[in-house]
Structure formats: structure tokens, C-alpha cells
């Protein structure tokens, strides 16, 4: 386990092919209130789109990051 509780994991395109070069991806943990996790579980079950809570949260975080970067860009442009 690395700095600040981050873990390393081999992942990336072709990670499961024999002899393929693997990218080192670091993971961390966050606390999410159980009520939010229950809502995520309900969406996963109802829609059947995400294979796991982690997949849902990862996608949600990426969407939020994109939105906030766009908002920041607009503020900086004035």
C-alpha cells in the first residue's frame, strides 16, 4: 500500500493478455454515507447498466470532474 492509503493495481488495455504490458493504476478509498450507497444500489438494480457500485461511482466522479473543469474554464474566460 502506498502513500495516503492508496493501493497499486495492474490494469489497462490488454492487461489480461499473456506478455502484455500492464499500466500501474493507483486506487484510494472514500467514505460514502450508507443512504447514498443504497440509492446507488437501487439504480444499479433498476437500470442494470453498471456492474458494480465502484463502476457507478467511478463514472459519476468522471462526469463531475468534467462538469467542474468546464465551469472553471468558463469562469477563467470571464
Written account of the structure:
Helix content is 50%, strand content 13%. With 78 residues, the chain is α+β, with helices and mostly antiparallel strands. It has a two-stranded antiparallel ribbon with strand order 1-2.
Short description:
This protein is 50% helix and 13% strand.
Features:
single chain; 78 residues; alpha+beta; two-stranded antiparallel ribbon; 2 helices
- Work out the helix count: 2
Average pLDDT works out at 85
Number of domains: 2
Return Rg in Å: 17 Å
Runs with pLDDT <50, length 5+?
none
Shape: extended
Structural class by secondary-structure content: alpha+beta
What is the string of SSEs from the N terminus onward? EEHH
Q: Biggest β-sheet: count, sense, barrel? A: 2 strands, antiparallel
Strand content: 5-15%
Q: Strands across the major sheet, in which order?
A: 1-2
Helix content: 40-55%
| Extended strand count | 2
Report how far the terminal alpha carbons are from each other: 43 Å
Secondary-structure blueprint of this entry?
Layout: E1 7-11, E2 23-27, H1 34-47, H2 53-77
Antiparallel strand pairs: 1-2
Amino acid at each position: 500500500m502506498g502513500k495516503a492509503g492508496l493501493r497499486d493495481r495492474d490494469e489497462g488495455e490488454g492487461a489480461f493478455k499473456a506478455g502484455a504490458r500492464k499500466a500501474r493504476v493507483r486506487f484510494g478509498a472514500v467514505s460514502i454515507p450508507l443512504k447514498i450507497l443504497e440509492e446507488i444500489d437501487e439504480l444499479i438494480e433498476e437500470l442494470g447498466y453498471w456492474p458494480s457500485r465502484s463502476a457507478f461511482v467511478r463514472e459519476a466522479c468522471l462526469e463531475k470532474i468534467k462538469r467542474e473543469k468546464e465551469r472553471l474554464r468558463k469562469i477563467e474566460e470571464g
